[in-house]
Write a structure and sequence with these properties.
The complex is a heterodimer of chains A (169) and B (332). Chain A is mainly beta and 169 residues long. Chain A contains three helices and twelve strands. The chains are: A mainly beta (169), B alpha+beta (332).
Chain lengths: 169, 332
């Protein structure tokens, strides 16, 4: 009789086991190694902390807790929920061009809820990926603390604190 | 370091079997490839190299499926390819310190669209019925013995490439039992629930979400990143991994790994010499860059989910040609 497969291990804010870089002949900082649950656990709600960067592109780790500000970007973004349950509301702003310029990179925080037409809503749990369409305003609401990743470009909301989040020795 | 220019080789041909095993031989410039019951052989004037045929076929499968990928695809510590985006090198010893120091390394350059059909022909001819070079060892038959049928369905799989996001109308579909994509034996505990999506009329192509982990749990291949979401040239390429990455991938640009589940241990070496540089142990939630001057090989005991993040910008090959591509993504 075959043994059952070992359980699949996902991480969470409450439970994660961080690995590490064991250097043989290198600088550990070259690997920019961090853990997204650790980063989100130490962040303020909806700080968009870069955990990966590749030229103008970034991956942001976000602690999803309560309601976020409203955001909009001139390009698509994607949100991947890694922990918790997160509701994403989407609105087509009446004056999107005034909120974010064509070609602008990264998300812009809006001062207030946008006027416009409701596009829909996504309720996402661990492993769920949602499109944040270009020029759509969006807001996250986390039920309890959760973690999501955002695939986007570096923008004014992106927080970079590599020395604090990465293995340095 | 800027790249070297080379003459392009044009000799590419299929040859009769070399022995009684029934497998064809193939020539690409100075190299002759042939296989017997257990091994793949590469001969050239003044040298020969041998490697187990299962390792060779698993590596060749990735090189073909990935279109020579980014940078160097080392089949082992001697044989490999280096992508120049339009042209590609086949080499022995070019990333091996001992071969290079002794002046025994040999490199030949080909047009990519000329070499690829030959590599596909090798893969098709040398893969026996029942052996799937994309599958984990526990999920496939053996490649050994004399020629015995073929497995074209396995070796001609196409890499999944979403244009915007999996599940959007007209884009790569989600996976399901109905489509013949059952949950893998090692992911039976992965929830298959889908997100709740409430769409106002007119926004069906904009308000969309899917269960990425369920999608990955139904992958029938290992070590084969597939594009699932696209922001400009930023490509999320998740994949499922089990056993050993069949190639030692030598980067020519930074790539990123985000461990979504379980654990992978990465053996990291200097790309050009093969000298050991680091061991990177990644568990769920860990994220790390692989610098542009290393090669890496992953080991995953439990089938795991890995998000490979690539930048497919067309400006990067030109930076590589000029020797100006950054080795690390950020300094701090």
């Amino acid at each position: 009789m075959n043994a059952p497969p070992p359980p699949t291990v996902f991480g969470s804010l409450e439970r994660y086991a961080k690995g590490r870089v064991d250097v043989i002949d290198d600088d550990p900082k070259n690997y920019v190694f961090s853990n997204v649950f650790e980063v989100a656990g130490r962040a303020a709600p909806y700080e968009r902390v870069a955990v990966a960067v590749n030229f103008e592109y970034v991956i942001e780790a976000v602690r999803a807790e309560g309601a976020s500000p409203w955001y909009v970007a001139a390009h698509d973004e994607f949100a991947l929920v890694l922990d918790g349950r997160v509701t994403i509301e989407l609105v087509q702003p009446a004056r999107a061009a005034e909120l974010v310029a064509e070609g602008a990179e990264g998300a812009r925080r809006l001062a207030a809820a946008p006027d416009g037409r409701r596009m829909g809503r996504v309720v996402a749990r661990r492993g769920h990926m949602a499109l944040l369409p270009r020029r759509a305003a969006y807001r996250f609401t986390g039920e309890g603390p959760g973690v999501l990743l955002v695939q986007t470009l570096r923008g004014p909301e992106t927080v970079e604190r590599w020395a604090e989040i990465c293995q340095t020795a | 370091m800027a790249e070297t220019t080379r003459e392009v080789e044009t000799t590419i041909e299929t040859l009769p079997p070399r022995d009684g095993s029934g497998y064809r031989a193939f020539r690409a410039g100075p190299f002759t490839f042939w296989r017997d019951a257990y091994f793949a052989h590469v001969d050239w004037a003044g040298g020969t190299h041998v490697l187990p045929v299962d390792a060779f076929l698993r590596a060749m499968m990735r090189d073909v499926a990935w279109g020579f990928f980014y940078g160097v695809v080392n089949f082992d510590e001697v044989l490999g390819t280096r992508n120049h985006y339009g042209e590609v090198d086949v080499f022995v010893g070019a990333c091996n310190e001992a071969y290079r120091a002794a002046g025994r390394d040999v490199t030949a350059r080909f047009r990519s669209d000329a070499l690829m059909p030959l590599f596909k022909a090798i893969l098709a001819d040398w893969t026996n019925e029942g052996f799937d070079p994309f599958a984990a060892p526990d999920e496939t038959g053996a490649p050994w013995g004399p020629k015995r049928g073929s497995n074209l369905e396995a070796v001609e799989r196409r890499r999944v490439t979403a244009r915007r996001m999996v599940g959007l109308p007209g884009d790569t579909p989600r996976r399901s039992d109905a489509a013949g994509q059952p949950v893998n034996r090692q992911f039976v505990d992965v929830p298959q629930d889908e997100p709740e999506v409430d769409v106002e009329p007119g926004f069906e192509g904009e308000v969309s979400a899917f269960n990425l982990f369920a999608y990955l749990s139904r992958s029938d291949v290992t070590w084969n990143p597939s594009v699932c979401s696209v922001v400009g040239e930023s490509l999320f390429c998740p994949t499922t991994e089990e056993f050993i990455l069949p190639v030692d991938h030598g980067n020519d640009r930074v790539e990123w790994f985000l461990q979504l589940s379980d654990e992978i241990v990465w053996r990291v070496r200097d790309r050009d010499t093969g000298r050991a540089r680091a061991t990177v142990t990644m568990r769920a939630g860990d994220i790390a860059a692989m610098p542009a001057d290393i090669s890496h090989r992953g080991f995953s005991t439990k089938r795991s989910m890995l998000l490979v993040w690539e930048n497919g910008s067309p400006k990067i090959p030109e930076l590589i040609r000029r020797g100006e591509a950054p080795k690390v993504p950020v300094t701090f």
